[in-house]
Write a structure and sequence with these properties.
Pfam families: polyprenyl_synt. Keywords: Isoprene biosynthesis, Magnesium, Metal-binding, Transferase. Its cofactor is Mg(2+). With 306 residues, the chain is mostly helical. The chain has one domain: Farnesyl Diphosphate Synthase, CATH 1.10.600.10. The protein contains 15 helices and four strands. The strands form two sheets. The protein has a two-stranded antiparallel ribbon. Strands 3-4 form a two-stranded antiparallel sheet. It is globular, with a radius of gyration of 19 Å.
Length: 306
């Protein structure tokens, strides 16, 4: 019997995720071309960490959000590619010796191991810049106001009040004399992980010039989905093998990282993730059956094994 998750079968979600990942990789291949000359090594490093591998969940959110408003697949793929570039940049820098000092990412050597630290830093910087170049291009949307809004949203989600700010809080938490409480951990994870996922969920509504209520619904869905995703990731770090994850596991506890799993324990953290998923599903009721894959994705986030 085919298992059904949130109105869409697990098989249909898996097929949609696979198709999205293939389409995004094809778009990235075009947006990050192989070049010759002095910049070739930089482009090689950018492509190494961006094309192939990863679940493309953020890009998938863009595509599914855009689908709610009849946005063209080509436009949505450009925004999906931009968020995947931004995500790849964050992973490159997160893996550096000055940050988490990881040797393995997506089942292969991290960028600074495959190339060198300087090249990895430049590849991350270049991916961040190129993400904004893609968003600002007329090919993404004919209306400059839409392009400006996408640039503003992504800059805010990735900057000091978003991902970078969350990373700073994460570093400070490791050095703190007292462990963070639940609200502080929730804010850290909202900034570090949740803001980019929130952007991904809302971006399709921006492309489609959706009404404020629809934008807010997708943004709220993204916030709760991002929080659940981070808890699920921390649960996998505590319980899954390195082989299953394609990266080192059991590092959070060893490094003294602030996580809800460490604070609440595995069972209570899992219950919190389930509550967040239920909230995420409620936010998108206004879209009816069109959002079945988004509901299925919310359930998948806490059921995944890698």
């Amino acid at each position: 019997m085919t298992m059904v998750i949130g109105g869409a079968s697990a098989a249909s979600l898996a097929a949609a995720l696979t198709e999205a990942a293939q389409d995004i990789d094809e778009a990235l291949d075009q947006l990050l071309p192989v070049v010759e000359g002095d910049e070739a090594r930089l482009f090689e490093a950018m492509r190494y960490s961006t094309i192939g591998g990863g679940k493309r969940m953020r890009g998938f959110l863009v595509l599914e959000g855009a689908k709610q408003f009849g946005v063209s697949r080509s436009a949505a793929l450009r925004v999906a590619s931009a968020i995947e570039m931004m995500h790849a940049y964050s992973l490159i820098h997160d893996d550096l010796p000055a940050m988490d000092n990881d040797d393995l990412r997506r089942g292969k050597p991290t960028s600074h191991k495959a190339f060198d630290e300087a090249t990895a830093i430049l590849a991350g910087d270049s991916l961040q810049c190129h993400a904004f170049t893609v968003l600002a291009d007329e090919a993404t949307h004919p209306d400059p106001a839409v392009r400006i809004e996408l640039v503003r949203m992504l800059a805010r989600a990735a900057g000091p009040r978003g991902m970078c700010g969350g990373q700073m809080l994460d570093i400070m938490a490791e050095q703190a004399a007292e462990p963070l409480d639940e609200p502080a951990i929730g804010r850290l994870q909202l900034l570090k992980t949740g803001k980019l996922i929130e952007f991904s969920a809302e971006a399709g509504a921006v492309l489609g010039k959706a009404a404020a209520a629809q934008r807010h619904a997708l943004a709220a869905y993204g916030r709760d989905l991002g929080a659940a995703f981070q808890i699920a990731d921390d649960l996998l770090d505590a319980t899954a093998s390195t082989e299953a994850m394609g990266k080192a596991t059991a590092k959070d506890a060893d490094a003294g990282k602030a996580t809800l799993v460490g604070l609440l324990g595995i069972e209570r953290a899992r219950m919190q993730a389930e509550r967040l998923v239920a909230q995420a599903r409620d936010h998108i009721e206004i879209f009816g059956e069109r959002a079945d894959l988004l509901r299925a994705l919310a359930d998948y986030v806490i059921e995944r094994r890698s």
